[in-house]
Amino acid sequence: MGLKQEINHITDELIDFLPQLIDVSTIVGDSFYGNMNNESWLLVGQIVTAIDDLYKTLVEIENMLIHVESNHAWKKPINDYIARIEVIFARFNEHTDADEFVMAGDIIRYEFIPLFHSLLLFLGKTEEESNKQFSTNLLFLQEKYPLIYDRVFQLQRDELNYQIISSKDGNANLYLNTPSGQFTNMYSEYDINTEVVRWVAGSVEDVKESQFVLLFGVGFGYHLKEFALKYPKIKIFLVEPDPQVFLASMYAVNWEETLAGIDIVDFALGVKELDDVELLLERFCVKTGSKLNIQDLPKYQKYFKEHKVTLLQHLKYCASKFKLNEKTLDYRYIKHTKNILNNIAANLSTPSVRTLNKRLDGIPAIVVGAGPSLEADVEYLKQLRDHCLIIAAGSSVQSLQHFGIKPHLIVSIDGSDKNYVAFKPINREDIPFIYCPQIDYRVVDLQYEKTYHAYLKNDYISKYIMGYSEANGDPVFKETNSVSGTAVQIAIYLGAKEVIFTGQDLSYPSDSMYAPGAKQFSEKEKLSILSEADQWIENNKGSNNKISTTMLVTLRNFENMLTLFPDVKFINASSKGAKIKHAVYEPMGDIVKRMSSDKVSMTIEDIFKNEKYHYNKQSEMKEKLFALPQQMQNSIKLTHRMNNRLKKLMELSRTNPNKCLKMMSSIEKDWGDLVKSIPLNTIYQYALKNKIIEFDRYQRQLSEERNIQKKARLFERVLGQLFDAIIKHSPELLSYLEEAIERVHQLERVTLQGDKNV
Q1: Which of 226, 535, 642, 714 has the highest Cβ tally under 10 A?
Q2: What's residue 324's pLDDT?
Q3: Do 14 and 123 touch, CB atoms closer than 8 A?
Q4: Contact 446/424 with Cβ under 8 angstroms?
Q5: What is the rounded CA–CA span in Å between residue 201 and residue 196?
Q6: Residue 597 CB neighbours (<10 A)
Q7: Among the ranges given (326-340, 384-398, 672-686), the one the predictor scored with the smallest mean pLDDT
Q8: Quick one: which of 502, 524, 650 has its CA closest to 570?
Q9: pTM above 0.85?
Q10: Helices and strands: H and E segment counts in the chain
């Protein structure tokens, strides 16, 4: 048995022992106020022995703690309990020896027994009780908050830096090592309830008029519960910046009881997990617009400042995105849906990047951006072309061709019209090209030769039609905020163990955006973007570059992506660029010297050979595509039917509740069929992303609402918006689908004509 386990075992025995000692001490204490007899003195002897055993046990724990971590939360309290027992025991003996029995009884009743109660509260739960609480909480999260469950399930508990203790009021507390390296209690050492009540009463008066609040810091849920009691109508977004804090709480508090009746809109664990927290912040911005109300738990204001800064950076970025308004975002998803569908013909005519997996095993890759640093590295790039795979990230190929450099590979994913304008004049006849289906389909149409396709994880449409699977080794990449992130992942998929960045400034050195040759933005647009650069970030030269919130979030997103590949060496050679975490700065000149003896260009040039899908697989994909229009028509018909019933619910909830319930049941049945349908899980899931997110947010509230009129209102609001969106956009989406099918038929005709000519 390890030392920690031995301490836990002794502690569990004390927790069982102390209630018995308290009971006997109560009897003995009372007996001192009356006539002492032989039986009374026998009991006195028993508690004296028991107190002596308790004292020795605490001394044993104290000695064990000497060999445990230096910052163990129990060291000082255990020492204090030992000292108090020594003092009280000495006074008890003094009074009994002097036959001062009333004084001895007072000491038992008013000093020993409170000490035993205090010690019992201090020791908290047994290990078995704590583990049982964790299991109960885990089941609750799995049912109610599956994303949080997945995160918690993957965590390894850090018991050294996050120690569960008890306050003197018996509530669980946390003794934690803060980001600054200072150990502190999360809550009051004495009275957590008073702390929490006063915080809610005095610190959050500004929330009275708010409909939504973001609570930064969850801790053990005490502040959250009191806040919800005072403001029951406010809907709450929760962000716990430190996952280990929440993991500790899983052993200490009952989360089902804590969250009961609280209107939680969304919950994110950790601010570095960009996908989770950005999704929550996007929802927060959708709901609150410019009226953002964020409340910090007291200790989080002091000890989690860096986490708060990160959160605010994400929030500012999300808020700026939503200034575009929902219509603009919907338009972008709709446009990308058109691109994905129209690129099916290209997917069927070009090989998958899977054919290139590990083909460049061990060959270094350079991912080139169009940042200002690129110009200084141009001559070095020319020298490295025979030693590394040079990848042009998106329209950076404009700058490379401006300087007379031919990359080995171009990667592009941008679905905007600007990307087509950028690529239209580019001659890529001899340059292999990798795209993801969200790209403007006209870019891919420019040339199918030497072209390969890959996928992004959120592309539900291609996943269904093309039948790809990341588990089977297909090229499926994490969506990032820039094409450079995709290019890095592709380089690693091809086999690179070292990835070098140049022109990846991820900031605005000397108030400039691009290297010469880049033509994607007008001067007016550049000035507008630069005007938003109101922050500073350290660069590779030790000075600072201007950076905007949007670019800062892009940088952090890029850095987060790099952590997915701990076995890959990342080199930041962008001399003027921002420092990039997880990448070491090395000047390009030094890289040239280091790689001058390794010539690999023939290997690189030879591996890019087009390979087509087997015809049977193409047939299967086409069948899925050709069946979608009818499937969509069925889904549209079903949606109209549900929507017609939906409009009657509010009136029925007032006039005929039973009929209203039956109609809700029929809607739920049809909704179940729609949820299982292929169109909803592919076309609508992607094209109507915002509406799907909105529905997901209220789905739990809808299922749990028992008041029939409130439930009818929720039906109308939650499902109604989604139904309206499906009905509104379906004609447009159907036309894109028909266009995609016609493009595939046209491809078949061209292929057939080519075969006849042969």
Answers
A1: 642
A2: 47
A3: yes
A4: yes
A5: 9
A6: 7
A7: 326-340
A8: 502
A9: no
A10: 34, 19
